[in-house]
Amino acid sequence: NSHLKIQMSQLALCAYSSLCLQVLLVFAKEDSQSNGFCWACEKATFRCSMARTPESALECFLEKHHDLVIIDHRHSRHFDAEALCRKLLMFSKQICHGGVWVTTCVLSLRPDREEASVMPLINAGFNRRYVENANMMACYNELLQLEHGEVRAQFKLRAGNAIFTALEQSQEAIEITSEDQVIQYVNPAYESIMGYQQGELIGKEIIEVPKSEKNKPDLLETINSCIRKGKEWQGIYYAKKKNGDSIQQNVKITPVIGQGGKHKDRRKGSLDVRSTTSRGSDGSSQRRHSSMARIHSMTIEAPITKVINIINAAQESSPMPVAEALDRVLEILRTTELYSPQLGTKDEDPHTNDLVGGLMTDGLRRLSGNEYILSTKQPHHIPSHLITPLSLNDIPPRIAQTMENEDSWDFDIVNLEAATLKRPLTYLGLKIFSRFGVCEFLNCPEATLRSWLQVIEANYHSTNSYHNSSHAADVLHATAYFLCKERVKQSLDPIDEVAALIAATVHDVDHPGRTNSFLCNAGSELAILYNDTAVLESHHAALAFQITTRDDKCNIFKNIERNEYRTLRQAIIDMVLATEMTKHFEHVNKFVNSINKPLAALEENGGNSDEENVKSILTSPENRILVKRMLIKCADISNPCRPQELCIEWAGRISEEYFAQTDEEKRQGLPVVMPVFDRNTCSIPKSQISFIDYFITDMFDAWDAFADLPNLMQHLDNNFKYWKGLDERKLHSLRPPPE
After folding, report:
1. CATH among 1.10.10.10, 3.40.190.10, 2.60.120.970, 3.40.50.2300 for 22-167
2. How far apart are CA 250 and CA 215, in angstroms?
3. Where along the chain do its domains lie?
4. Distance from C-alpha of 426 to C-alpha of 309, rounded to nearest angstrom
5. How deeply is 671 buried, as exposed, middle or buried, from its count of CB atoms within 10 A (0-12, 13-18, 19+)?
């Protein structure tokens, strides 16, 4: 005999909260306008489907029932847009989701010269007309207006219908009153328990309904006082049935806040049916609440729990818009993947899906008889013919000449690779480490550094098209370039610089030319050793220290003090592990929120005059770690920011390595991690566009805002346009065909 009572100021039932909208684009052919809406859907994180004919549009609509349909009305020769709209709305009325009838918002895309009446469009069922404009931001703004207007209104309507159905079916007695205590609704369960019919109660004030004498005299005033403050009241209440009997009920009275309402507590706005079940006076409800109280009173809290509790407390006295915004914040904080963007909008782009899936997951585990053996072999020793009495003073002139501009971003690593017979890491390492005084910092002879560089390079696989010592040398070069930037120098200590150079040198040592997903799927020994988690990155870091410390001839750490070695070691390991792509968005987001935004706020409030605050942001131990992670991440995947010829060269190399992996997966019967990287069908321009869009742009925007890298951003823009140009010509190759 439980009784749930709801007091309204204005009832606003809304199930809409950051939902991923389904959008159907109906365009007979691809053009800049359709591309504009596709881009806008992706930016707004909406799921987007494309249909070319009325038949395929209807079929797609019946399968997914889209929230928004955009129909191209510019070319009547392709199809009758108004007839299609009528059919869609007819189908919409025939579709029932969870017992709720739904409708769809439909937009008409008209030519930019047409000034005809909108009445035919309204009669056909269109909600809105969009005049032809392929500008991407115009498309994006139109989608946002639709989302917050017609589409949101329909979500509210659906939610209202759904909640009304829930009230009707509920076994709990539910009574809804207006703010001035007039009964507006009682559900069938209330009628059954209390013996009244709806017609006997609707429109009457609560005081007109007989009350039980068993309630305490001041109980009603206590309840009303709670409700006026916007707070929920829960307790034992004696109700009087129509036949005069009194029954004891465990009652929850909740003020429901709507738009324009006075109450401010939104946290209890939804109906917790489980907490109002018919328990009578058996005490089980009180036990539940006391156990929850113990949990919330525990002193062992995670930081995220403290944040949620602080927000909950702030909501108590917040104005309505702030309370609603904090509700949305809490929804985000309660998710488990705080930094990973959802890939739902990428369904139409297999290149992005495959690339992201291949780089950011640990593979699809499937037992097979094909086990990929790796890591059982011993680290490589230096072949005798490679051991030369090399020092900075006797580098061959031809090699020295190729390294003359090694401090420039446009330095050509491919030329050095050719000049050194695929041993660029040793030569470039000697010069860069000398420039940064690494030997002096480590108190090690140049001969030890030379031996170390040679043995590290010997453990890179020259047979890999991409992950070889040339890539390591390229990342070392980028790292050295970033370390010379003023903001970076302000943030890092000498030990950080040395750690960054060493981490760049070893970050892919003994890379097998296969992704983590491949190794996990193949059941490799490395995957088993590292529990399918950051397999390669863990191996690179561990092997680097094994190689370094096993032989005094190449142990560059031999002469440094123990505590300094521990600090250096931890920094190197952290940076190497930061190159693993599953944590990409976490590292970038933390960098932006902990460093970029506070620095921007200081600049807005008076430039860089507040040097102490700037320094405290740049040099805090937590932020130094974030800077080092961001530095090596940007250095590791900086290929799209290189001069165009180098960008094309690296794109060809990574594609070939992925092609080889796909070939081997097919040969061994393993799951194909990235199906689009089939050498017979792959579009290299599309894969580069996806990589730049998904991983590169935001990261380098953030890094440029910190380190000031206009030349890199110009290269990135030029390279993106280059790949876009090839893709628009439907070319799959690295370069256009000869004229």
Report:
1. 3.40.50.2300
2. 13
3. 22-167, 298-333, 350-728
4. 54
5. middle
Q: Is 385 assigned a ligand-binding role in the annotation?
A: no
Catalytic residue among 66, 73, 467, 477: 467
Q: Is 636 annotated as a binding residue?
A: yes
Burial class from Cβ neighbours inside 10 Å (0-12, 13-18, 19+) for residue 290 reads exposed
Give CA–CA dist 240/215, Å, rounded. 11
468 belongs to an annotated ligand binding site: yes
Global model pTM greater than 0.70:
no
> Which among 343, 338, 336 is positioned nearest to 359, based on CA atoms?
343
180 residue type, one letter: D
Is 610 labelled as part of a ligand binding site?
Answer: no
Q: From CA 63, how far away is CA 265, in angstroms rounded?
A: 40
Assess contact for 498 and 438: CB atoms under 8 A.
yes
For residue 50, the one-letter residue type is M
Q: How many CA atoms lie within 13 A of 626 on its CB side?
A: 23
Tell whether 470 is in a known binding site.
Answer: yes
Q: What is the CA radius of gyration of the chain?
A: 33
CA angle 504, 510, 513 (to 5 degrees): 100
Distance CA 258, CA 256 (A): 7
Which residue do the tokens 């309660």 mark? 334
For residue range 304-358, what is the model confidence (pLDDT) as tens digits?
667 777 887 787 777 878 887 887 787 777 655 566 665 444 445 666 666 666 6
Residue 546 assigned as binding residue: no
- 688 annotated to bind ligand: yes
Report the alpha-carbon angle 281-286-290, nearest 5: 170
Q: Is 33 within any annotated ligand binding site?
A: no
Backbone φ/ψ region at 478: left (φ over 0), alpha (ψ -120 to 50), beta: alpha
- Partners of residue 24 on adjacent β-strands: 49, 69
One-letter amino acid of 9 = S
**Maximum CA extent, the chain:** 109
Q: How far apart are CA 606 and CA 612, in angstroms?
A: 13
**Cβ contact 619:491 at 8 Å:** yes
Cα–Cα distances in angstroms (integers) from residue 98 to residues 162, 300, 358, in the given order: 8, 41, 37
467 labelled catalytic: yes
DSSP-assigned letter for residue 679: T
- CA dist 452 to 280, 381, 436, Å? 77, 11, 17
pLDDT per residue over 506-533, tens digit each? Answer: 999 999 999 999 999 999 999 999 999 9
What does the pLDDT read at residue 297? Answer: 39
Cα–chain-centroid distance for residue 555? 41
**What's the CATH class of domain 350-728?**
mainly alpha
Query: 521 in the Ramachandran plot: left (φ > 0), alpha (ψ -120 to 50) or beta?
Result: alpha
Q: In sequence order, what DSSP letters do the residues of 219-285 get, joined into one string?
A: HHHHHHHHHHTT--EEEEEEEE-TTS-EEEEEEEEEEEP-TT-S----TT-S--GGGGSS-TTSSHH
